[in-house]
Specification:
Low-confidence stretches: none
Helix content: over 70%
Structural class: mainly alpha
Oligomer: single chain
Shape: elongated
Radius of gyration: 20 Å
Order of helices and strands: H
Number of helices: 1
Strand content: under 5%
Largest sheet: none
Protein backbone atom coordinates (compact mmCIF):
# COMPACT_ATOMS: atom_id res chain seq x y z
CA UNK A 1 0.00 0.00 0.00
CA UNK A 2 0.88 3.58 0.60
CA UNK A 3 2.26 3.15 4.14
CA UNK A 4 5.95 2.65 3.15
CA UNK A 5 5.86 5.84 1.09
CA UNK A 6 4.44 7.83 4.02
CA UNK A 7 7.16 6.45 6.30
CA UNK A 8 9.82 7.36 3.73
CA UNK A 9 8.43 10.89 3.39
CA UNK A 10 8.46 11.32 7.19
CA UNK A 11 12.03 10.08 7.34
CA UNK A 12 13.05 12.56 4.65
CA UNK A 13 11.47 15.45 6.56
CA UNK A 14 13.22 14.42 9.80
CA UNK A 15 16.61 14.09 8.09
CA UNK A 16 16.14 17.43 6.32
CA UNK A 17 15.22 19.12 9.60
CA UNK A 18 18.27 17.59 11.27
CA UNK A 19 20.59 18.86 8.56
CA UNK A 20 19.04 22.33 8.77
CA UNK A 21 19.34 22.36 12.57
CA UNK A 22 22.97 21.26 12.38
CA UNK A 23 23.79 23.90 9.79
CA UNK A 24 22.14 26.81 11.57
CA UNK A 25 22.70 26.08 15.25
CA UNK A 26 25.83 23.99 15.55
CA UNK A 27 27.94 25.47 12.78
CA UNK A 28 26.56 29.00 12.95
CA UNK A 29 26.15 29.55 16.70
CA UNK A 30 27.69 26.85 18.88
CA UNK A 31 31.10 26.57 17.21
CA UNK A 32 31.88 30.34 17.20
CA UNK A 33 30.63 30.57 20.81
CA UNK A 34 32.94 27.72 21.82
CA UNK A 35 35.88 29.41 20.09
CA UNK A 36 35.09 32.68 21.89
CA UNK A 37 34.84 30.93 25.26
CA UNK A 38 38.07 28.96 24.85
CA UNK A 39 40.08 31.89 23.53
CA UNK A 40 43.72 31.10 22.76
CA UNK A 41 43.47 27.59 24.25
CA UNK A 42 41.29 26.62 21.29
CA UNK A 43 44.26 26.91 18.91
CA UNK A 44 46.69 24.86 21.03
CA UNK A 45 49.27 23.76 19.87
CA UNK A 46 49.93 27.00 18.06
CA UNK A 47 53.40 26.23 16.68
CA UNK A 48 55.12 23.06 15.63
CA UNK A 49 58.32 22.18 17.46
CA UNK A 50 61.43 21.92 15.29
Amino acid sequence: GVLPLVLLAQLGVVVGFGVLLDTVLVRGVATPALVALCGRRFWWPSKLSR
